[in-house]
Amino acid sequence: MLITSPDIAVFVAAQTIDMRKGCFSLAALVQQEFALDPKGNHLFVFFGKGGAKVKILHWDRNGFVMTYKCLAEGRFRVPRIGGKKYKISMSDLNLLLEGIDLTNKQRLRAV
Fold it and tell me: Rounded to 5 degrees, what are φ and ψ at 64?
């Protein structure tokens, strides 16, 4: 179950990742590539190469929580924009995880 607080920022990696990465590898990626604190009040979203798998990382008081979803059929409609990451709202994340296409340029902000 994901946190649904509206004050949590959601950052999506613009590039796909190797889905074998665990929570500490993803946290290092957040710190090195995104220049963000992985223990901050954020969700970090990573998609696999085929677009059918997603991992979401966040810090929960005393440890990392990693949510993993693998679609049985189809793929996520992941927006592709420039940069290393982009920011979306919590409601957009929920839409994305339900298969809604978020490619409308007005919805996305590169950060």
Answer: -80, 145
